[in-house]
Amino acid sequence: MTLAHPAISVRDLCKRFRATQALDGVSLDIQPGEFFGLLGPNGAGKTTLISILAGLTRADSGHAAIMGHDVVRDYRQARRALGVVPQELVYDPFFNVRETLRIQSGYFGLRHNDGWIDEIMHHLDLTPHADKNTQNLSGGMKRRLLVAQALVHKPPVIVLDEPTAGVDVDLRRSLWEFISRLNREGHTILLTTHYLEEAQALCGRIAMLKAGRVVACDTTRNLLHHANEHCAALRLASVPPAAWAARLQALPDGGWRFNFSDFSELESLLAGVRTAGGQVTEMQLLEADLEDVFTDIMKRT
Amino acid sequence: MNGFLALLYKELLRFWKVAVQTVVAPVVTALLYLLIFSHVLESHIEVYPGVSYTQFLVPGLVMMSMLQNAFSNSSSSLIQSKLTGNIVFVLLPPLSYLQFFGAYLIAAIVRGLVVGLGVWVVTLGFGMPTVPHLGWLLAFSLLACGLMGALGTMAGIWAEKYDQLAAFQNFLILPLTFLSGVFYSIHSLPAFWQGVSHWNPVFYMIDGFRYAFLGQSDIAPGFGLLVVAGSFVAISALSLLMLKSGYKLRH
User: Fold this and answer.
1) Cβ contacts (< 8 Å) between A99 and chain B: which residues?
2) Domain map of chain A by residue range?
């Protein structure tokens, strides 16, 4: 029996840049068809990890493979299976959009690729700009072209490194619609982003990196579920009772924020307010979002 | 189209799109050198018996233009791609280091030859004889442009800023080409500087190329070709080692 390879497999990756340990023993498996998020603060090692997958950086130790092809030993197969949308808005000012896509296809050995090029240009709204020099494209259009370039060879695995940084709302939405469609059609997506609500909405599974280590890796649902803190926003008729003052954080709108891990704590607070002669005029339970989970995990580890 | 051909096509299209700057400008520069030097020196200098100074100068100018342009093609393409970041477009695909090197090398040779041809054509009006030794001409031009293309690849990979590349050009390429006997025969130099010139591979390129035009040279063309070929192999090997190791391209 042959086991299917993970789309992306990473084992004990370490990478050091002079004084900084960018990756410190990272292991991950991403299965075919997943929409996987990679989160972490700046300098956590996300881009280093992606660069190693793409062959732009060489790991000091450990292994990485795309669809079962080692990124160093079997780099041709690995790179054929991988499409990377780089973080920086790069373009080659010598060429127009169509030329750029044709040349990029050529690098992958694809000669007659115009049908597919037309299709991706269409989906990314690049068709009206096909003959425009890349220098004259707006930032959003340059970003779309980078996505198109990553897709010319129909890679089963697509890596997007902060693709929506500095991108307007419309483009972000259309980009996600397109990427989600690719995911539904079977492409594996690995995404890094700073927009946590984006990751929460799109990713089935999420890994969090901190200082080169994986500090959390679970389905998005489990991560949200396991947030051990609940939160309520309250409005009080008078100042909070002295016994509770330390637990309440003032909110800019004059209300109070109360973090708790067990609902009995909330009950005690309400009882405390009542016995002190106060009154709760408004209360709202806030659902944990990925940002809370993220902040919590980053604080704890 | 395999990846190598695509990269070669891209490199050729790149310089062709700015041909005014990459082909016409160097031809005009060479023509200016020719007008000025031949005007000033024509009646004063006879390097080889029966050969006018202009006839002596033209092959040197053609070769010098080829060398400079072959070098700048690979070096400026690489440094631009590195500085603008679009080098990732060629680093992400499954191109081997040999394909990478080959594409930059051949594009540099083509640019060198196109410029050389341009300079030769505009100097036809100055009474140049037809080329009697086509074989030597081709051998010297191909190897010399190849050598400079490979050197340009090295310089483009090594340099991190434009001024580093400019330093490479100003302190290495320019002295080597100007002190190679483009404008004079090294026999007119004091013995010490003649000796120094023999360590300059560019001297052999100019001298051998001149032989192809005039049938006369300072050094036997066979030996010259051997030196040029040896230098080409050495520089190419170094350049390939850099590419294979990922030096400054893959961290």
Assistant:
1) 13
2) 8-225, 230-300
Decide if pLDDT at B51 tops 90.
no
Does B7 contact A104 at a Cβ distance shorter than 8 Å?
no
Q: Is residue B116 part of a domain?
A: yes
Q: Among B86, B91, B96, select the one facing A92 at the smallest CB separation.
A: B86
Reported as a single tens digit per residue, the pLDDT across A170-225 is 888 888 899 999 999 999 999 998 788 888 889 999 999 988 999 889 888 888 87
In tens, the pLDDT along A121-154 reads 998 889 999 999 999 998 889 999 999 999 999 9
- Domain total of chain B: 1
Q: What are phi and psi of B203, to 5 degrees?
A: -55, -45
Is residue B175 in a domain? yes
In which domain, by residue range, is B191 found?
Answer: 3-245
Task: Give chain A's mean pLDDT.
Answer: 89
Strands in A8-17's sheet, in edge-to-edge order, are A20-30, A8-17, A61-66, A69-70
C-alpha distance from B73 to closest chain A C-alpha (Å): 14
Pick the CATH number of A8-225 from 3.40.50.1110, 3.30.43.10, 3.40.1710.10, 3.40.50.300: 3.40.50.300
d(CA A183, CA A31): 12
Residue B5 corresponds to which amino acid? L
In the predicted structure, residue A2 carries a pLDDT above the cut 60:
no
Minimum distance, in Å, between the CA of residue B15 and any CA atom of chain A: 9
Q: Which of A58, A77, A84 sits opposite B246 (nearest CB)?
A: A58
Residue of chain A whose alpha carbon sits nearest to that of B103: A107
Is B251 a member of any domain? no
Give the residue from A48, A147, A131 showing the smallest Cα distance to A96: A131
The whole model's pTM is what? Answer: 0.86
What are the residue ranges of helices labelled H in A226-278?
263-275
Show Cβ contacts of residue B203 under 8 Å, excluding neighbours closer than 6 positions: B179, B180, B181, B186, B197
Identify residue A123 by its one-letter amino acid code: H
Instruction: Please judge whether A91 and B84 are an interchain contact, meaning their C-beta atoms are less than 8 angstroms apart.
Output: yes
Number of other CB atoms surrounding residue B227 within 10 Å:
20
In a domain, B250, yes or no: no
A70-97 pLDDT tens trace: 999 999 999 999 999 998 999 999 999 9
CATH 1.20.1260, domain A230-300, yes or no: no
- The DSSP-derived string for A185-203 is TT-EEEEE-S-HHHHHHH-
Torsion angle in degrees (nearest 10) through CA of B174, B180, B182, B183 = 100
Q: In terms of pLDDT, which residue wins out, A227 or A265?
A: A265
